[in-house]
Amino acid sequence: AAPESEELTAFWTHAGLLLLVVMTVIGSFSHRGLYLPKEEIERCFSSPISRTDLVRYRLMINLLRSIFAGVLFGAMTARRMPVATFGFVGVMVTMLTLPILGQASALLLGDAENRIAKLSSRLPLKAISVILAVLLVAATGTLVVGGEATSNIATKLREWLPHGASIDGLMELPFVKAVLLPLRPWAAMITASDAVTFFAWLFVCAVIWYVGFELTARIPVDFRELSLATSADVAKKLNRVRRGALGASGGSVSKRTLGWNLPWIFGRGGFGAIAWLKLASIVRKARGTLLVSAGVVALVTLMMTAAFDGSTAAEVVAGAAMLALIGTFYLCAGLRFDFRTDLELMEQIKAWPVRPTLVFLATLLPEVLLVSGALYAGILLRAAITSAFHPAIFAVLALQPLVTLAWVALDNAVFLFSPVRYSPGQEGALQHMGRSLVLMMLRVVLLGIVFVVACGPAALAYYVVNGSFDYDATALSIGAVVMWTGLLAVDGLLLLVGGKMLQRFDVARDKG
What we know:
Layout: H1 4-27, H2 38-46, H3 51-78, H4 84-111, H5 113-122, H6 125-145, H7 147-160, H8 167-171, H9 174-180, H10 184-190, H11 195-217, H12 224-242, H13 270-284, H14 286-307, H15 313-335, H16 346-351, H17 356-386, H18 393-417, H19 430-466, H20 473-504, H21 507-511
């Protein structure tokens, strides 16, 4: 049998390539035909340009966009390959081949519109894509983590296989071998351990790339009608993004949820009405909200399970804490059911007869509860997967909503101080990229100050009670209470600041 590291490398490489191919094909269902931006499509179709040249034009643009993904995935996986340089270049070539596969699939699906497109409309393609993306990044994460975590995963995989079987033997099964056979050139190139093998497979992959590029450009499909429909759909999504509807908050409202009667769980006063309104917007976009939340939580849970095996109390607590922190960051960045989607409603919000601080809190509270509930599920799921639970996890669960509230409150206070309103066609301008970078750095610095102020007294209390930083249940409980009190005070201060930012928000200046 091959050494464990080589066996796992081959397994995860084939699995990752298969997931990438499936995700690419699924993505082509939403871009059937040849996608051209709304600003270009009429000009391109009315110009004396051949159909094959139009396809080549879009392919080259997609290839340029894939360079960044190639660099990212190549850097993540190269260190786990037999030769890092060969692994990086192999991943780059692979990522530059996928757009060709996607475009060919989109054209062929367009040709089979009447038979396949109707079936695809009934399939939960977004849910499938989220699940596959989670599996792909989890597979990549195990290669990045390596070491003991990778060995633990190898042990788990062997437990699931029949007695006496191995991962290498699994890949030799006739069905598995037939499925993975088309991926052989790219997998062999990425995992090559010598120059002769690498350059031989690189030549084969380059020939496949060129032949695929030209064959895709020459697929005899009239894509004009489908391209117009695809361009209109994408333009609607971009318009929602320009209004600030990003992530799950930018999804379409589900007709099935419009008639739901939502309980007034926050009371029937002004505060409760504002929170109910925001909760209704979350529920009415429940499908996108749940997909984003489930995908992020599943991804972070898998990564933390691989990184922290739960063999000790420190591993259990550290895994739960890291899951809560990383999950908070990604969920809050993707959901955005807060002031970042309410710029068009600021005239009404400013006229509400409720104090600005209460308006600020009521707007953020439903998102905080959603994020906290999702991460509670992830933390408990991880405890079930690792069969490891420690009472200190309750401290993480108690602190997590306050951390989320601090994160969201700070982000929205900064946003209200300097809101971003893009003009159509100006999203990628350099001045906006610089603005976003400066605001991101400001958020990081302010959040660092927040956590130092909240965590410093807790660490001091722990040391005073225990006399050292060794594990002690009593000291940990007292430190958690001190940290909870500090975070509560910080949250109160941030809510006051957010209320001041909302009060000073000038609607006339923002729209002027």
